[in-house]
């Protein structure tokens, strides 16, 4: 390191330009009067006394009287310790900057746009671990493997876990049906086309990132009930409804659990029209007070505004309009809607068919 580089390093360590000039010159001289030091460096004579006092207060030099003010450099041990501490601090700061750039803290705004997929993936993993109601997830098999521990926690919490598996661009997945999903998922479907990463958790959190070959790389984090509903519809119509089931934990016999009123209607409508009595358990919320609601009663009516002529089997998109159930309990009659219900008395969070007779 030459003299100029040493002065620059000292300025980076907190010395002023004049202080660095004077200290480096004093190291070369050993000891000198104030005027001699001023002549040996670029510090004006009028400023040299203030510079020497500042350097002495920092522990770099000591001054003494000998006909005039003289100065000499102190034992550099304390200076070196200070510089080494600064070096360690700067090194730690560099590491922290890198870490925060790679994984910035996610502010709990309604909507956040982030730059890196890791931020989206880690947030999704965090949400999944705390899920208690429902998880809807679109992932590659590799991503699924990483999320296994989190999915296991969600499943043990009682969440309904729906997984849409898809390959990466140019890849084929041959072992989808051979993968163990027991204790991890309620249902798994396989989409043959690459698709974005999507995680929707407990109707309030959503994480989205385009697939790796997308022109634009970014991520969207949602912490809002209404905005999450947009991603929910995308998941249901594009990533779920039309793709093959490769695994289900649901048996054909009650109790049969649904997290969406439209899926319930798809299965219940033919039975209801055939005169079957369907004992239904509704977990949800009062649409006026948002208080939890738990009711058990018989299904007495199904109303839906189908966008086309009714068929034997209704598709999810054909039930895009209002869908409403009427449930008769021993004491009251309730109207039940799905996610975002405003016209009905109850918004269903989970619907369980307890019996069919």
Question: What do these coordinates show?
Answer:
This protein is α+β, with helices and mostly antiparallel strands. The chain folds into 3 domains: 3-77, Arc Repressor Mutant, subunit A (Orthogonal Bundle), CATH 1.10.10.10; 111-248, 2-Layer Sandwich (Endonuclease, Chain A), CATH 3.30.870; 256-356, SH3 type barrels (Roll), CATH 2.30.30.690. Helices cover 35% and strands 29% of the residues. The protein is built from 10 helices and 17 strands. An 8-stranded mixed beta sheet has the order 4-10-9-8-5-6-7-11, sandwiched between helices.
Helix count? 10
The CATH architecture designation of the largest domain is 2-Layer Sandwich
Beta-strand content: 25-35%
Distance between the termini: 90 Å
The CATH class of the largest domain turns out to be Alpha Beta
Helix-and-strand structural type:
alpha+beta
Total DSSP E strands: 17
Can you summarize the main beta sheet?
8 strands, mixed
Radius of gyration from CA coordinates: 35 Å
The largest sheet has its strands arranged as 4-10-9-8-5-6-7-11
Give a short overview:
35% of the residues lie in helices and 29% in strands.
Provide the fold topology.
Blueprint: H1 3-12, H2 17-29, E1 31-33, H3 34-40, H4 45-57, E2 61-66, E3 68-73, H5 77-102, E4 111-114, H6 117-129, E5 134-139, H7 141-146, H8 148-156, E6 160-165, E7 187-190, E8 197-201, E9 205-209, E10 219-223, H9 225-240, E11 244-248, E12 256-258, H10 261-273, E13 278-286, E14 292-304, E15 323-328, E16 333-337, E17 346-356
Parallel strand pairs: 5-6, 6-7, 16-17
Antiparallel strand pairs: 1-3, 2-3, 4-10, 5-8, 7-11, 8-9, 9-10, 12-17, 13-14, 13-17, 14-15, 15-16
């Amino acid at each position: 390191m030459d003299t100029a580089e040493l002065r620059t390093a000292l300025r980076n360590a907190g010395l002023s330009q004049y202080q660095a000039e004077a200290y480096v010159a004093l190291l070369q001289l050993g000891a000198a009067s104030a005027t001699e030091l001023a002549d040996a460096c670029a510090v004006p004579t009028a400023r040299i006394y203030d510079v020497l006092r500042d350097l002495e207060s920092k522990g770099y030099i000591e001054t003494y009287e000998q006909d005039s003010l003289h100065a000499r450099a102190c034992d550099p041990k304390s200076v070196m310790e200070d510089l080494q501490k600064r070096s360690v601090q700067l090194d730690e700061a560099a590491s922290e900057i890198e870490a925060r750039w790679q994984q910035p803290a996610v502010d709990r705004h309604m909507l956040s746009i982030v730059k890196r997929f890791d931020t989206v993936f880690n947030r999704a993993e965090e949400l999944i671990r705390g899920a208690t109601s429902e998880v809807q997830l679109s992932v590659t098999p590799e991503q699924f493997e990483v999320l296994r521990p989190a999915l296991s926690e969600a499943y043990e919490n009682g969440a309904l876990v729906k997984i849409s598996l898809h390959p990466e661009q140019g890849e084929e997945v041959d072992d989808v049906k051979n993968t163990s999903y027991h204790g991890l998922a309620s249902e798994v479907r396989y989409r043959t086309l690459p698709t974005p990463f999507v995680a929707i958790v407990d109707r309030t959190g959503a994480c989205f990132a385009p697939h790796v070959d997308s022109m634009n790389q970014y991520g969207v984090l949602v912490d809002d009930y209404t905005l999450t509903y947009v991603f929910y519809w995308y998941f249901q119509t594009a990533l779920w409804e039309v793709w093959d089931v490769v695994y289900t934990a649901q048996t054909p016999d009650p109790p049969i659990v649904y997290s969406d009123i439209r899926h319930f209607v798809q299965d219940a409508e033919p039975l209801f029209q055939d005169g079957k009595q369907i004992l239904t358990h509704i977990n949800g919320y009062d649409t006026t007070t948002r208080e939890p609601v738990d009711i058990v009663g018989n299904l007495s009516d199904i109303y839906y505004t189908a966008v086309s002529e009714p068929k034997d089997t209704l598709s999810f998109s054909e039930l895009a309009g209002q869908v409403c159930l009427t449930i008769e309990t021993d004491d009251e009659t309730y109207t039940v809607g799905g996610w975002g219900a405003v016209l009905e008395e109850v918004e269903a969070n989970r619907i369980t068919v307890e019996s069919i007779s």
